[in-house]
Structure formats: C-alpha cells, structure tokens
Design brief:
Layout lengths: L1 H34 L1 E2 L7 E2 L3 H7 L2 H32 L6 H13 L2 H11 L5 H12 L16 H8 L9 H4 L3 H26 L4 H9 L4 H12 L1 H16 L3 H6 L11 H10 L7 H26 L8
Antiparallel strand pairs: 1-2
C-alpha cells in the first residue's frame, strides 16, 4: 500500500518533474556547455574552454555594467524599502478612504512595465510634462528652469556636485562620475513602480502585530515615533529581510526599462548586465556571441547568489525571535 501511494504521488507530479528536467535542468546544462564554446547559433559550437570567462573579466563594458547596476541596486532597494514601510504604516491607520488609497498606490505595480516605461518616456521628454511642471514651479519664484533631456543626459551626480565647486570630472573617469541623470530618472521610475508591491507585504505584517503592544506603549508615555522605532521596526525585521533580498535580486536582473527607454545609453551610463547578455547573445549590435553571453549570465548568477547569501547571513541574523 505504501509503495502504491508513492508511485501514485510520483505519477501526479511527473508532468512538473519532466518539464523541470527538460526546461530547467536541461537548459541550464546546455547553457553551461555553450558558455565554454564559441557559438553564433547558425553553426556548430566550437569548444574554447574558459576563454569566454577570461574575456569577460577583461571587458570594460561588463565591468561598467556591474558598476551601474551596483548604484541602481543600492539606491533603489534602499528607497523602495523605506517608502514601502512608511506607506504601509500610514495605510495601516484607521483613516477614511484607506481602501481606496491602497488600490491607488498599488495600481502601478500591476501595470505592464512596457506601459509604465512609455508613460515615463513621455514624461521625461525634453518638452515633456516633467520639465513643464518644474518650469511652472520655478516661475512662481521668478526663476528660470532650463529643460533637461532626462533620458539623454550622461552627467553624473558627482560630476554635478564637483561642477558646483568649479571642479571637473571627465566622462572617461566614469567610476568617479556617479549615477547619471538618466540613470537616476530610471531609478525614480523603478522606485515608484516597485514600492507598492513591497508595501502590501509590510501591510500584511503590520496587521499581525498585536495592538496591545501599542496600547501598553501609549500608557507608558511612548510617542508615535518611539513606538515605530521600538515596536514596529523590530517586529518587521523578517519582512525587511525578505524585501531587501527580493529587491536586490530584482534590481540585479533589470532589463525591461533599459531595453525600452535607453538601450544602455547615453555613453553607457545605463548599461546593465542583463541587457548586455541579451545584446551579445542575439547580436543586436554586432556579431552573435551566444557563448560569450551565456558566460556573462553565469557570472551574473554567481554575483546574485553571493549578494543573496550575504544579505541572508547578516540581515536575517537575529530575526528568528520575531517569527
């Protein structure tokens, strides 16, 4: 009877197991083999060993893509986590219309990334609404706003700061320029569209915190800020850990915004590893180098694994008491 139950169980899960073996394990093994080959898709793969990997570590373009995605992950994950937590805390209060605001805030997260990208593309035009709105605000103070081409401005944050002190950082020294104006514009878009998703996670966790804790703190004279710091944040640590890990994985895999809005420009300031893998594998801007692209994909996967491991090791530490 036990053996029959086991056989029946495996029969029921066999469709998933077969599809996983073919489309996950099989494709992963094939990609690993291709990463060790020189292959243009139309001819037979030619084994070259670790040459693709060695070439990647010497590629300034790939290193710069990693540098760009580092800034993106650092800024986007930090702000989206803070904003999501604050939004959830606000909507957890018994305020009129809270259900409407939850739906309103969450709407960008369920909208197609292509649609969102096109909307922001129109907003970021040099003659778009954003420059118009800022210009109107400047007029209120009798000042003039010079329109910015948000999606085609390679000036970096540190370049702008240095320029304010009559210093100059050349574009060739891209590791000192900081995130470009275009890159920061895409960061704002990402924060706007991803924060509501994590807001829902924080909101669910907040509703599981016993109200008696806040009542006791209020009786003891604790202010709202003290309650937030001493009660809310510590009890949200497991969710904060999950949000940071998921956010980091998502940002390191960024592709759609870059593909639709900038294609890695201007001057490579928005180039990211996944778009570079796509470009090299399909040869959209040069010869097809599928083996080279597969090698980059495995290096990126290793980087994501390392970041996730470190975050789980240091952020998750001490959260067990809050589960």
């Amino acid at each position: 009877m036990k053996r029959r139950e086991e056989v029946a169980a495996y029969i029921f899960i066999s469709p998933y197991l077969i599809s996983a073996l073919i489309f996950t394990v099989g494709l992963l093994a094939f990609a690993l083999y291709i990463s060790l080959c020189k292959w243009n898709i139309f001819t037979s793969p030619h084994y070259v060993g670790l040459k693709n990997y060695l070439k990647i570590f010497k590629s300034k373009e790939f290193i710069r893509a990693l540098f760009n995605i580092f800034w993106y992950s650092l800024i986007v994950v930090t702000f989206q986590t803070i904003i999501a937590m604050l939004m959830a805390t606000l909507l957890n209060k018994p305020i009129p219309g809270s259900s409407f605001f939850r739906t309103f805030f969450y709407a960008p997260s369920v909208t197609s990334s292509v649609v969102i990208s096109m909307i922001f593309w129109w907003l970021y035009l040099k003659t778009g609404f954003l420059n118009l709105a800022i210009g109107k605000i400047f007029l209120l103070f009798h000042a003039h706003w010079k329109n910015i081409d948000w999606l085609n401005d390679p000036r970096g944050l540190f370049q702008l700061i240095a320029g304010a002190f009559d210093k100059k950082i050349n574009y060739s020294e891209w590791y000192f320029t900081g995130p470009s104006i275009t890159w920061m514009a895409i960061m704002f878009q990402a924060i706007y569209t991803t924060s509501p998703t994590f807001m829902i996670m924080f909101l669910a966790a907040l509703q599981n915190i016993p109200s008696s804790l806040y009542e006791s703190a209020s009786i003891d004279g604790a202010s709202q800020w003290t309650q937030f710091i001493r009660i809310t944040v510590p009890l949200l640590r497991p969710v904060i850990m999950m949000v940071v890990v998921l956010g980091t994985i998502g940002t390191l895999q960024l592709f759609d915004y870059v593909k639709i809005m900038t294609a890695g420009g201007p001057l490579g300031t928005t180039m990211v590893p996944v778009y570079l893998i796509y470009r090299e594998t399909l040869g959209t801007e040069g010869p097809i180098r599928a083996g080279y692209g597969a090698a980059m994909a495995f290096i990126l996967a290793a980087i994501i694994f390392i970041f996730t491991y470190l975050q789980r090791r240091f952020i998750e530490k001490g959260t067990e008491r809050y589960y």
